[in-house]
Amino acid sequence: MKLEFFQRKFWTASRQCATLDGKCSISCDDDHINCYLIDNNGFILVAEDSSLTGVFFGEAEGAVMSKLLSMGSFKRVTLYDYQAICRIYAESSDSSSSLLDPYFAFFTTVKWLLTELVIFLMEFNLYSWWHLDVTAQAQREGRTMLVPCDTEYPAFISERTIKETTGNIDCEDCIKSFVIQQIPSSNLFMVVVDNKCDCKEFGPITMDPIEIIRTEDVQTHATHSILRKTLWNVARR
């Protein structure tokens, strides 16, 4: 099923009510409410603003997502990426060095891939040494470079036992109301939010990754842990 067709079906269904005349006293067409269809990980599938499709719900409705987390309707978990790429930058007075940026980014990425293949180098903690060496080089020469790093980022999971929940959010000068209801036999939820109250004091909730800064001892322990897991997986094959 194409997304456009699915969205049309959703809007059609949202305008139908179990009344004698089939009309709704309130619907997603009303100007003072926003309607969303989200999945169990909080990503928007359908919204009145089509540009929000695929966006995490917390970025569009930070206040509501914060309330859902505090109510237990959603829970936050932390995931780790041990093969991430981070960008480092240091200013330089030599503007001509910027011409070499694409080449350095390319060679740095290739170097990282080769390092991933040569697993035994991690036993001697050369990964940590190389990361520091590349960082120092970028700071000396004032380049924007991509380097391997470890990151952590949040993920969100819905509580499937909650079929319907209403909530009110106390803001500075108003109260923001919302309703979330699970779509039967699916992992989808319809969320209706009162948009008359801005709740500007609540910022967006994002899923942006954060680089993990490790000390040398922790880095060595993490490297050895990855090595042991890799060797164990190889031995099982």
Automatic annotation (TrEMBL):
Entry-linked InterPro entries: Ca_channel_alpha-2/delta, VDCC_a2/dsu
GO cellular component: voltage-gated calcium channel complex
Segments forming domain Voltage-dependent calcium channel alpha-2/delta subunit conserved region: 2-201
Chain ranges passing through the membrane: none
Any matching Pfam family: VGCC_alpha2
Recorded GO MF terms: voltage-gated calcium channel activity
Protein name: Voltage-dependent calcium channel alpha-2/delta subunit conserved region domain-containing protein
Organism of provenance: Pangasianodon hypophthalmus
